[in-house]
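Lab notebook, bench 4. We co-purified these components, and the gel suggests they stay together. Before we commit to crystallization screens, I want a quick structural picture of the whole thing.
Request: model the full complex, all chains together.
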Amino acid sequence: MIEFKNVSKIYSTGTEAVHGATFVIEKGDFAFLVGQSGSGKSTLIKLILKEEEPTEGTIIINGKDTTFLKPSRVPYLRRSMGVVFQDFRLLPDKTVYDNVAFAMNIVKAAPRHIRRQVPMVLSLVGLSSKAKAYPEELSGGEQQRVALARALVNNPSMIIADEPTGNLDPETAWEIMTLLNEINLRGTTVVIATHAKDIVDAMKKRVIEIEKGIIIRDDRKGGYSK
Amino acid sequence: MKYNVVGYFLSEGFRNVFKNKKSTFSCLGVMCATMLMFGLFFAIGQNITHMVENIEDSQAIRVFANIDTSEEDLERMKAEIESIEGVEPGIKLVTPEEAYNEMKERLGDKQDAMDILEPSIFSYSYVITLSDLDLNDSIQEQIMKLDNIKRITSSNQTIRALSVIGKWVRIVTGVLLAILIVISIFIISNTIKLTVHARRKEISIMKYVGATNSFVRTPFVIEGVIIGIMSSVISLLFVGGAYNWCANRMRLSETIQTIGVNILSFNELFAQIIMVYVILGVGIGIIGSAISMRKYLDV
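Here is the predicted assembly.
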């Protein structure tokens, strides 16, 4: 569960990226964050990931107030989330398997658990046959699937995706969104910041629209625009 | 900590060392230079200290009696010398025959030259050990006032000169070591910074996935430690080889043999040098890599 209570963020340059944001994303929700470039979507994602500190307000993640979370506790907060980026952020010198196993190494998982879990997640995203391939040998859609597998491998309670389809063609973008929907149906909360109008309109999920840092719309089954 | 995490850290550390060969070589070069310099000055310093100790242990003062001094006078002289404050009791008498043989031994293979001389040309002498080297001058003055004293020889000046040289060698070693350590840390931290910069993407991914700072830092610290240990081993081999070569040549030198200086073997220096090398190598490696990481952990 993610709860924002009157959250504002002013950067050191004086830019107010978010102003008085208040919303709740319940466990198991699927929500799109939409808005134009520079509207504040990415800042909201950064605030959830604790990459940025709010200037004002309270952020509660999974029932815990993270506003004054010590820097040493941030890694443990992030382990409850899987993160997916527009540019995939895969390690080029590691195979698909190692890119996913890498996330499990970080949480100090037992080798036996890694050997069982990684193939399972790769099968979920449809990449079992590519386990030994390197990222440069994969298409954009396949690379994003690896990123998704990496985000999922530690069984996070939520997936946070920042423009996950931004670098993909429409057909591949649909594949990724379908996959995220399937993940959501298994009970994982999914929050996606996106520009993909067609997809948002077609999926009929919750839409939180932000404009110039202010949340102007929060529709249960909305489209990209009113 | 689970086994696989230790394995992960070690494999990542070794991977970094061999993947970034250029930076590894530059780090090795700087650290070896630091350690070789230290090894050189340390070996010289230790030998000087050893010489000073040897000379201090041997005859601090030797008092020669006049040739015609009677046994009675020699006994009296002994009692008077032993009553002087700062003189260790039980001073040893050296007879003319003993002095003659001593000289023969010192001449080594040229001892035939002694055949034309008689032991009687040597005086009786006393070897005096001092409890406090600082009293040397005043003791000599008091002895000179006694009857039948021909002359006094003392290794005091040699000891003082060696002590001063030893002190300066130690100061120079310390200062040089401090400067070289700072330079090494600077260069190592910059070299590792390049590695870290090249892997900043990987580090940011690690941070997003929930890696703690210590988890991110450890492979880089291990890289520094591996380079430190490699430098220690290389330096030890170089210093050991060079030292043994020099020491063997010096031991064969006639001058060194005549003076009677005992050059330390490398085995006697080994324990201290290896300890300092390991501390230096590991310490510089840890500090250098830790400094270089700070900026990149703030994600």
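The CA atoms of residues 80 and 194 of chain A lie 22 Å apart. Worth comparing against the SEC data before the next meeting. Chain A touches chain B at residues 49, 51, 72, 75-79, 83, 89, 91, 102-103, 105-111, 114, 150, 154 (CB under 8 Å).
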